[in-house]
Structure formats: structure tokens, C-alpha cells
From TrEMBL:
Presence of the UniProt keyword DNA-binding in the record: yes
Residue range(s) of DNA binding per entry: 63-82
PANTHER family, A to Z: HTH-TYPE TRANSCRIPTIONAL REGULATOR RUTR (PTHR30055), TRANSCRIPTIONAL REGULATORY PROTEIN (PTHR30055:SF151)
Protein name, per record: TetR/AcrR family transcriptional regulator
Pfam families: TetR_C_1 (PF02909), TetR_N (PF00440)
PROSITE patterns referenced in this protein's UniProt entry, alphabetically: HTH_TETR_2
Keywords from the UniProt entry: DNA-binding, Transcription, Transcription regulation
Domain spans labelled HTH tetR-type: 40-100
InterPro entries membership: Homeodomain-like_sf, HTH-type_TetR-like_transc_reg, HTH_TetR, Repressor_TetR_C, Tet_transcr_reg_TetR-rel_C_sf
Length: 266
């Protein structure tokens, strides 16, 4: 699940459609026709097709016309189910955030395992749907998938003993960290695709100049770094994630000591 911390530079914005109508569609509270021919499409099919288009062509390729073509129908047929692209985008966001039904997917331990699993699952989500990084979700429309995901995580981390705003802030912190890591990975892939140079080729092209710079004596600390410092084997994502969790663990233990007389608190 995502918590809506993507930056404001997205090419699309959640909540840009008719909010009341979007909520009706997300929560299935709108009126259903009791008569007439059986519809040939369903809202689910439309949303799934839209996600498929965005996955393969990006948000720049997403339009009502393109989704209709994916479904093999006329564009006007879609408007019987969804008012426009703004509402459709919010339905797509909720669809891809649908949480796993397997409780083990949030780890088999306590709050730390749950947040660790959440971070990895969120990174995988952005890898499957890179277009999510181009959506400004600072004001998300909350549908059942988003709330189901939040409910599952909050249930697992409530034993941390933090205040309710702090619990939500912990989730936002994790999501913000993952968004940054996912965006860096996406930019690397886009740079390779646009330039035709692999990451290794890009850095190799700079070696002659960098070797001279290191030999100049101007950068003694950098020149002393081990050969594997910038190698691909070090997992920067996991290192950063574990340090965030270490910090939260210190806070949790401090709160436990302050509220439990048996633990030596006041």
C-alpha cells in the first residue's frame, strides 16, 4: 500500500475528478439500473485494462480512448461506467494497492517485521507499476483497498506503544523512504533506456578522468575508499531501511521504560 507521500511533481494528481462520484464507484454505493440489457462491460474490466495500459505505456499513454481500444469497444461506452480519466485514475490507484490476503506477507514477527515487510512490498509495488511515481498522491481518495491495507498494518504495529499520530507517521516515514529509493531505481532504468548506455558503461566512461582526480591529492578521503565502496553488491535499500527501524526501536524501548515501572521508568 502507499500512503500518499509522493512528491508534488507528478504528471497526474489523485482526487482530480468528481470526488463524490469517485467515492460512489470505489465503495459501490451508486444506483444500479434495475432494467435494460445486461452491460457488456464491467467497471472491474475497465480498471484492469487501464492499469495494463499504464503499466506498458506509462501515464502519458493513458486515455479513455486508449483504454477503450484495449477493451475493443467505443470510447463512449466507457462513460457509462466512469465519468472520466480523473475518476478512473483514482480507481486504478486503489486497485493496485489491494493488500494481500495472506497475513504472513506482513512478516511473522512483531511490529518491526511488519514495517520491514511493508517496505519491501511497497518497493515491489512501484517496480510493478512505475507510473505510480508520476502521480501526486498528497490528497488521496480513500477506497476500500487503501483502508484495508492501512488497517492491516496498524493492527500489526499498534503494540509499539506509540501515539496514534506517531503510528501513522511511522508508516509515512517508511513510504517516503521507499518512494525515494524506487524513484532512483526508475530514473536509472530510464537513463539507460534513453542513452543506450548501461550503468556499468556510463561509469566506465568516467574512469580515466576520475583516476587522475584521485591521484591529484585533492580528494584524499575519497581516494582512500575501498574498491568495493560503489560496487553493486552493497544493498543500500536494506541498509537504510534497517537504520530507520533501528531508530524506531530505540523510541519504542524508551516509551516502554517510561510507562512500565518494572522496566525502571519514572
Amino acid at each position: 500500500m502507499t500512503s500518499g507521500t509522493s512528491g508534488s511533481g507528478g504528471t497526474e494528481t489523485s482526487g482530480s475528478g468528481d470526488i463524490a462520484r469517485t467515492l460512489e464507484l470505489l465503495w459501490d454505493t451508486g444506483r444500479r439500473p434495475s432494467r435494460g440489457p445486461k452491460p457488456t462491460l464491467t467497471l472491474d474490466r475497465i480498471v484492469e485494462a487501464a492499469v495494463q495500459v499504464a503499466d506498458t505505456e506509462g501515464l502519458e499513454g493513458l486515455s479513455m480512448r486508449r483504454v477503450a481500444a484495449e477493451l475493443g469497444t467505443g470510447t463512449m461506452s466507457l462513460y457509462r461506467y466512469v465519468p472520466g480519466k480523473g475518476e478512473l485514475l483514482d480507481l486504478m490507484l486503489d486497485r493496485v494497492q489491494r493488500p494481500s490476503e495472506n497475513p504472513a506477507d506482513l512478516g511473522d514477527g512483531g511490529w518491526r517485521a511488519a514495517l520491514e515487510a511493508l517496505a519491501r512490498a511497497t518497493l515491489a509495488l512501484y517496480r510493478r507499476h512505475p507510473w505510480l511515481l508520476h502521480v501526486n498522491q498528497s490528497r488521496p481518495i480513500l477506497g476500500p483497498s487503501a483502508l484495508d491495507g492501512m488497517e492491516k498494518v496498524l493492527t500489526r504495529i499498534r503494540p509499539m506503544g506509540l501515539s496514534d499520530p506517531e503510528l501513522v507517521s511511522a508508516i509515512i516515514m517508511i513510504d517516503g523512504y521507499v518512494v525515494g529509493a524506487a524513484r532512483t531505481q526508475l530514473y536509472q532504468l530510464e537513463a539507460e533506456r534513453r542513452t543506450g548506455l548501461t550503468d556499468a558503461e556510463f561509469w566506465q566512461a568516467q574512469v580515466p578522468v576520475l583516476e587522475k582526480a584521485m591521484a591529484s591529492g585533492r580528494y584524499p578521503v575519497m581516494a582512500s575508499l575501498s574498491e568495493d565502496t560503489f560496487g553493486p553488491d552493497f544493498d543500500h535499500f536494506e541498509f537504510g531501511l534497517q537504520r530507520i527501524l533501528d531508530g524506531l526501536e530505540v523510541l519504542v524501548e524508551r516509551r516502554h521504560r517510561s510507562t512500565d515501572p518494572a522496566a525502571g521508568g519514572s
